[in-house]
């Protein structure tokens, strides 16, 4: 992972994972974490472990990690948006809790799309990995021959 965008995505994904861990712990202890809720406790815990696996796969640049992440986040957070947030918007009975949970859900889906896009762009970058700054040196056989000829002619004396 040479790209800074990839590292930033990993950091944001890690911070979001820690946030969801805190929300899940507060739900288990019956406390309110600033209005953020767990939509389904069982799926949330499973999702936390799946996201750890996806982060590892993302660090290893495997496309499977991005696909699993977008499917799992789309199912869990997209389900909240379509079943709770959109009907509340259509009916006009919005509350701050619904809006902030919909915002968190949107962030999760955007993160998942960002990870998948970064993985797909990394595939393109690896296939077309020509760099004009260094190709003249590494792909130039005439330069290598000149270096070899100069190296053979150098005779140094040690006194």
Write structural notes for this entry.
79% of the residues lie in helices and 0% in strands. The chain is mainly α and 159 residues long. The chain has one domain. Helix 1 runs antiparallel to helix 4 (96-127) and helix 2 (41-59) runs antiparallel to helix 3 (63-91). The two termini are 50 Å apart. The model has no long low-confidence stretch (mean pLDDT 83).
Rounded radius of gyration (Å):
25 Å
N to C succession of SSEs: HHHHHH
Helix/strand class: mainly alpha
The average pLDDT value, as a whole number, equals 83
Number of strands: 0
Strand content: under 5%
Helix share bin = over 70%
| Largest β-sheet summary | none
How widely separated are the two ends? 50 Å
Descriptive tags:
single chain; mainly alpha; 6 helices; 79% helix; elongated
